[in-house]
Amino acid sequence: MKQVILLGRGGQGAVTSSRVLAIAAYKDGKYSQAFPNFGVERMGAPVRSYCRIDGKFINLREQVYEAEYAIILDSTLLQSFHEKVTDTIIINSNKDSSEIKLDTKAKIKCVDITKVALEVIGKPFVNIAALGAFAAISEEVTLKGLEKAVEQQMGHKGPIVEKNLKAVEEVYKLAGGK
C-alpha cells in the first residue's frame, strides 16, 4: 500500500487533491481512500489530507503516520512538516531541490507548479496541477486516470476543466513524465 500526505493551506484545495488522486487510482483499477485531517477550519490554516492507494482492498481506517510520498502545495509550510516520508517529497517551489533542508531520508523534488498554474490557468490554483508531478514521479496513477478523475470531480467539460487538465499535463512533463 502507498500512502500520500498532502499539505496545504485552507482554501488551497489539499482535500480536493486527495479526493481527485483517490479517484484517479480507482479509475486506474486500484483501491483507494482519501480523507482530510484539519483543526479549526479557516482560510490559510495548515491542512493535511491523505490518500492511500493499493492493488487490493484497503481495510486500514486510521490517520497516516508514515507515508511513501508527500505533496506540499505551499513551501512556507515546510517548517511545520514533521511527518515521516520514506520515498519522495514533492514541493511546489521554484528553488532547486538541493536548497531544501529537511530532516528526512526521502528524496526531495521541487517543481514550480505555481508558475505553470499562473501560465495555464491564470491563477495560482496548484492543487490539481500538483497531481501531475505526483503521477510523473511516483507512477502510482496515470495521466489518463487523472484526466478521468478531474472530469468526474469538476464536471466533464468546460474551460476550467480544460485549463486544469492542461496544467496537470504541463506539470507532469516538468516533473519528468514522458
Overall description:
The chain is of the alpha/beta class and 178 residues long. The protein has one domain (2-174): Pyruvate-ferredoxin oxidoreductase, PFOR, domain III (Pyruvate-ferredoxin Oxidoreductase, domain 3), CATH 3.40.920. 33% of the residues lie in helices and 25% in strands. It is built from five helices and six strands. It has helices spanning 14-27, 113-120, 130-138, 143-154, 159-174, and strands at residues 2-9, 31-37, 46-54, 66-72, 84-92, 107-111. A six-stranded mixed sheet has the order 2-3-1-4-5-6. Strand 2 and strand 3 form a beta hairpin. Helix 3 packs across helix 5 (159-174) and helix 4 packs antiparallel against helix 5 (159-174). It is globular and about 40 Å long. The mean pLDDT is 93. It holds the Pfam family POR. InterPro entries: Oxidoreductase_gamma_subunit, PorC_KorC, Pyrv/ketoisovalerate_OxRed_cat, Pyrv_flavodox_OxRed_cen. Residues 10-172 form the Pyruvate/ketoisovalerate oxidoreductase catalytic domain. One of its GO terms (molecular function) is pyruvate synthase activity. Keywords: Oxidoreductase, Pyruvate.
CATH superfamily: Pyruvate-ferredoxin oxidoreductase, PFOR, domain III
User: What is the C-alpha radius of gyration, as a whole number of Å?
Assistant: 15 Å
User: Strands of the biggest beta sheet: in what spatial order?
Assistant: 2-3-1-4-5-6
CATH architecture identity: 3-Layer(aba) Sandwich
Compute the number of strand runs.
6
Q: Major sheet, described briefly?
A: 6 strands, mixed
Report the uncertain regions. none
